[in-house]
Amino acid sequence: MINSIKKLGPGLLFAGAAIGVSHLVLSTKAGGDFGFGLVWALIIINLIKYPFFEFAPRYTLSTGKSLLEGYKEIGKGILIVYFILNVLTMFTIQAAVTSVSAGIATKIFGFESNLLVSIGIALLCFTIIIIGKFDFLDKTIKLFVFALCICTIITAFVSLNNATEFNLNQVFPVNNLELIFLVSFMGWMPGPLDISIWHSLWSLEKKKINPELTFDNFRFDFNIGYLLTLIMGLVFISLGATVLYNSGTNLSSSGSVFAAQLINLYTSSIGEKWFYVIAFGAFFTMLSTTIATLDASPRTMSLTSKILNFQFGRNQNFWLIILTLGTCLIFLFFSTEMGFLIKIATILSFITAPLYAILNFILVTKKNMPKKYRPKKIIRIWSFLSIIFLLAFSFTYILTLFL
């Protein structure tokens, strides 16, 4: 059992990165606004995105290359676009997840300044990564993911037990506001498709530490992590449905304020004695995301710089320092612009989803991909239909911006 847990790693890092704002905020809000009515959307989008996330360990472990190296083989321009997109979004994304983590920590420990706590958490995560490296990160995220699962499942069980009634009927949003939320919800669940690149790099690092691990080990690890994101999505929908649905509560659009509101609502509904279980479940949810994203972005930027033969930025610690400083500067000088910056990052993430899906599909079906690792016909058909959906989905999202 212990040996099996040791073999797990990149899949749980994937789960730690994915189970963040998308689950804590959007899944809970889905439950609060629609009850259990959007469970269908959660399951469908997980099925649609599954092949493209799974292609990351499939390609990496069968070729020994990262997805970034594969993208370079398709076309250098693709990697340049990826580099630019990352520069435009990584600071905002890091600031957003750090801010939510800080909001929960402020609520738990009674700190007065969310600004100082945000900077403190950014520096704490920086220290964990720069001192512990990948091996320590691997072990830390396992603990955090385990803690968040235990805390949130206990909370969901208690809330379901306390609920007098709930409706499992599935619904489809009808008005513009509801449709916009549905698009956002499905776009972010279980996470943006560029996380597949992060997973690819984490898989390579894990393979360096444990060379004896096989492709089947990594696929099992990924499936565990992916299943976990689905289960946690259902758990947070359940929490929203049993605590917030028909409550008449107006939730803040600010992630940090939303988190504090959420904890207050849970404790008032379930009971004050569950405060720390609820609060620490939310905190570990966001802290695992904060650490994972702070590790992943510098890792991808340094490798991209190497592949493109840039004369700067080849060192991962360089980008780690830049990202940490940039995040802190956003808190200090651009906190009022956070909403606008997050909107830009969201738009870019949504409209690039089909691109990453197509690229990942091309890599695992190319002739230089070992034949025994190429996806079977049923998976190729599944992928093709999913790409069509994602293209239509992105087009729909762009239309909602002008409604």
Structure commentary:
This protein has 403 residues and is an all-alpha fold. It has a single domain (2-400), classed as Up-down Bundle (Amino acid/polyamine transporter I), CATH 1.20.1740. It is 80% helix and 0% strand. It has 15 helices and no strands. It has helices spanning 2-7, 10-18, 21-34, 39-63, 67-74, 76-109, 114-162, 176-188, 195-209, 215-243, 255-270, 275-307, 316-333, 338-365, 377-400. The longest helix is centred in the middle third of the chain and has 49 residues, at 114-162.
Search tags:
403 residues; mainly alpha; Amino acid/polyamine transporter I; 15 helices
In short:
The chain is 80% helix and 0% strand. It has helices at 2-7, 10-18, 21-34, 39-63, 67-74, 76-109, 114-162, 176-188, 195-209, 215-243, 255-270, 275-307, 316-333, 338-365, 377-400.
Write the layout of secondary structure elements.
Blueprint: H1 2-7, H2 10-18, H3 21-34, H4 39-63, H5 67-74, H6 76-109, H7 114-162, H8 176-188, H9 195-209, H10 215-243, H11 255-270, H12 275-307, H13 316-333, H14 338-365, H15 377-400
Helix pairs in contact: 2-7, 2-9, 2-10, 2-12, 3-8, 3-10, 4-9, 4-10, 4-14, 4-15, 5-6, 6-7, 6-11, 6-12, 6-13, 6-14, 7-10, 7-12, 7-13, 8-15, 9-12, 11-12, 12-13, 14-15
Structural class: mainly alpha
Fraction of residues in helix = over 70%
Number of strands: 0
CATH level 1 class label: Mainly Alpha
Q: How far do the termini sit from each other?
A: 53 Å
The CATH topology turns out to be: Amino acid/polyamine transporter I
Largest sheet: none
